[in-house]
Amino acid sequence: MKRRTSFGFVALLMAFVLIATMRIQHEHLKIDFRASEFNGKQERWRRGLEGLPRGIVEGTSDLELKPLWDQARSKNDDSDNCNALLAMAVGISQKQNVHHIVSKFMNENFSVILFHYDGNVDGWRDLNWCDKVIHVVAHNQTKWWFAKRFLHPDVVSTYDYIFLWDEDLGVDNFNPKRYLNIMLSEGLEITQPALDANKSSDIHHRITVRNRMKKFHRRVYALRGSLNCSSESRGPPCTGWVEGMAPVFSQVAWRCVWHLIQNDLIHGWGLDMKMGYCAQGDRTKKVGVIDSEYIVHQGIPTLGGPSDKVPRRTLDLRGLVRRQSTSELAKFKERWNKAVTGDDTWTDPYRDISRKRQVS
């Protein structure tokens, strides 16, 4: 009996020693991993910068205009400056509407960058804010093309919020500062203003329609045709989703979305269905539509061809644009699916939803 007791005690002691040894080894492995990760970051930081001391390296930038001499006061010296950026692709045919939008944002001390897809910058010089904004010119390019090339996260990292808007939006009932206050107070990372259903000409998704009874909403309830949106819904277009016409991103969300934008797919079709992955958490909670500050979508497709509201050209290119957009959507879906199956380290937080709604 004593031998059995002694043997049991020895076995227990050995098990304790083994567990303690394994824990020590585990902690050592964690330390080694952290050290190697730190060394890796150090190596990446140093790559190409070996000739510079760390303290002189300026890794970020902004889009603020700087004075040539001290007498001119820099915008950065303004204590009332709103740390947000409005970026739009614009054409001269929408000059008056863009003027109305930019004036409203400039009055709240926003930074503004305009992407001119028609090459016409001189036509804007009579406006009082023209010399106070950044102008970038590239013929027949979309806002997603411009954003990928000129709104790199390191360039816009000083801005807390990025507005990436279309030019055909009515803003009579929109105040950008009140809008951002709602985003901040409700913990939203990706949003859009709600659409006025009575005045907007193009409304494609029920979730974007303004709810007069709410300050903002995160989901829509609808049962119509193939659309079945309920409190159980966890994905687009029922919840966790905004449209591509007027998205607003927090700084951290934009860093993710910028990497989601494909360099060669310039129309951005399909991005809206995946932007919720960049919401820095549960997209059903971090993505929303703000109702109290709402806009009108006028639906004027000036880039690439005419509409009923603009002078008609000899050749209507809208059909070609739509065909290209549809082709790019198929390519984007294919790339997403390939990336998902090819990355063993990534786990889809909405995997159950993806299985129910297979991407075609």
Helical region count? 9
Query: What is the general shape?
Result: globular
Distance between the termini: 70 Å
Helix share bin: 25-40%
Q: Which oligomeric form is depicted?
A: single chain
**Beta-strand share of residues:** 5-15%
| Order of helical and strand elements | HEHEEHEEHEEEEEHHHEHH
Mean pLDDT: 85
In terms of structural class, how would the helical and strand content be classed?
A: alpha/beta
Cα Rg: 26 Å
Low-confidence stretches: none
- Strands, count: 11
Main beta sheet strand tally, sense and closure: 9 strands, mixed
Walk me through the structure.
With 360 residues, this protein is of the alpha/beta class. The protein has helices spanning 2-46, 95-106, 143-150, 176-186, 251-260, 271-274, 283-286, 318-342, 351-356; strands spanning 84-90, 111-116, 134-137, 161-165, 169-170, 190-195, 216-217, 222-224, 227-229, 248-250, 287-297. Strands 1, 2, 3, 4, 5, 6, 7, 10 and 11 form a nine-stranded mixed sheet that branches. Strands 8-9 form a two-stranded antiparallel ribbon. It is globular, with a radius of gyration of 26 Å. It starts with a helix and ends with a helix.
